[in-house]
C-alpha cells in the first residue's frame, strides 16, 4: 500500500491476514453489537496488580476497543507483512510473541516509574489491543528496509518509500492519552528481541511442533492466492509516455519471472547466474541485423558495475552477497526493485 517493498495482497502471509481479519472483526463486534462486554477487554494494570486479574494481560492486549486504533494498526500490519514473507510465518510469529510478552513487562515498569518519580497514578487503563507488537515491528522496519527517496521537498526534506508508514505510526502514537506508554514498551521489546539481547529470541519463540500444527490447521484457511501480474494502463500525458510506461512494466514483469526462474536454477545447480545473458532489458534488445543476406547479432554489453554500498545494504537485510549482486545487476542498480525481487522470491 505505502511501501514498494513487496507485491500487493497477502500472498505468503497467512499470519498477517489472520491478524487483520480476526481482531478487526472482534473489535467491530464489540463496538457495534456488544458494547456492554467491552469492560472485559479493558487493559487495566491496576486490576492485574491489585485484584490479580491476570486474564486481562491476555484479553486486554488482543482486541482494540477504539476503532481508530483498529484501523491504524491494521494498515501497519498489512505493510509489515513483508517480514513474514522474508523470514517465514514461524519467525514472524516468534517475534510477535516475544515482543508481546516483553512489552507487558515494560508496561508494568513504566507505570511504576511514573508513579514513583512523578506521582502519576491515572494511567490505570492503557489502550487495549495488539498495539505493542505493531510498534515493535518498527525496529526491523527501520533497520532492515532500505530508504529510497521518492520526492524532494523544501530543500533537505525528502519523501521516501517509508515516510507514510512513519506518519501512520505517529498517528497511532498520538491517538490516546497513555498510548505512548504502550508505544515505548513496544519499541523497547522490539529492540531487545531484534538485537537478541539476553537470548530472548531462543526462549520466547514458537516451537516447531506448534508451527507445524497451525500450518496444517489454520494456514489453509488464511492463505491467499498468488497475485496476478497484469500490466496497468499507462497514465502518461502523451502516447509516447504511455508507451514508455508500458515498456517499463513489461521490463519489470520479465525481470520478476526470470529472477524467480534463475534462483530456482541456482538452488538446484549452484553457482552464479549471468542475468545479462538470461534477459537483457527489453528496451536494450537489438533487432536482428541483416547485412549481405546474413544474420548478425551485436556484441554483448560489458557486465554492469554494481554499487558496493547497495550490495552492503542488501546484505544487512540478510541476503547473501551473490543474491544481492545478481538482483542489482538484473534491476540495473535499482535498489528498490532489487529489494522487491529478494523479498518476494
UniProtKB/TrEMBL annotation:
GO biological process: Wnt signaling pathway
Transmembrane intervals: 92-111, 117-143, 164-188
PROSITE patterns associated with the record: UBA
Subcellular location: Endoplasmic reticulum membrane
Main subcellular localisation: endoplasmic reticulum
Domain UBA positions: 305-345
UniProtKB keywords: Endoplasmic reticulum, Glycoprotein, Membrane, Signal, Transmembrane, Transmembrane helix, Wnt signaling pathway
Pfam family, one: UBA
GO cellular component: endoplasmic reticulum membrane
UniProt-listed InterPro entries: Rhomboid-like_sf, UBA, UBA-like_sf, UBA_UBAC2
Lipid bilayer topology: Multi-pass membrane protein
GO molecular function: serine-type endopeptidase activity
Protein's job: Restricts trafficking of FAF2 from the endoplasmic reticulum to lipid droplets. In association with LMBR1L and E3 ubiquitin-protein ligase AMFR, negatively regulates the canonical Wnt signaling pathway in the lymphocytes by promoting the ubiquitin-mediated degradation of CTNNB1 and Wnt receptors FZD6 and LRP6.
Annotated protein name in UniProt: Ubiquitin-associated domain-containing protein 2
Species: Colobus angolensis palliatus (Peters' Angolan colobus)
